[in-house]
Amino acid sequence: MKIVLSPDPTLRQVCSPADPTDKGLKHLASQMGKTMYKNNGCGLAAPQVGVLKRIIVIDCNAEEDKKHLEVLLNPVIVAHSDETVECDEGCLSVPGVAFPITRWAWVTVEALDLDGQEIVYEKADGLLGRCLQHEIDHLDGITMFERLDPFTRMGAIREYQEALARGAKPGDTSVPE
Ligand code: NI
What we know:
- The protein is of the alpha+beta class.
- It has one domain: Peptide deformylase (Peptide Deformylase), CATH 3.90.45.
- The chain has 3 helices and 7 strands, in the order αβββββββαα.
- Strand 6 (106-112) and strand 7 (118-125) form a beta hairpin.
- The model has no long low-confidence stretch (mean pLDDT 94).
- The structure holds nickel (II) ion.
- Nickel (II) ion is lined by residues 91-93, 134, 138, 177.
């Protein structure tokens, strides 16, 4: 699948709930997984492939031989830490750059799997917690740029435009996400 690049307006839409009885979702999720791995990402949200449904795929296992794709339908942050953490973050839809983004130190996320069963990520922190927050943002039309303060955002947009002009492609960042 082709990855939608910022500033495509598709990335700013709020996605509709995914219906777990929709038989087409398994195929979609598997295609999203392939696209994510091919571009060296550890997470991908449906709007990034042009589908405005609340579906994300993640794999935050660092080791290549332990690939395990996780599919979340309608993920919701139901609890989060008091403290926040700032860390450099990348996005397959914003190739060639990484920006320091402030996130909750941990989040508890509820979602459905492809069989409609409830799954819970209890106090997910580190890369997983960050990835979940980043991908759930995509479902609400929020990209990394919206997470930056207005002044930092202007510089970030300029930096991104320069990266695009250099020919940056999805996955061209040391912090894939
Ligand atoms: Ni992203």
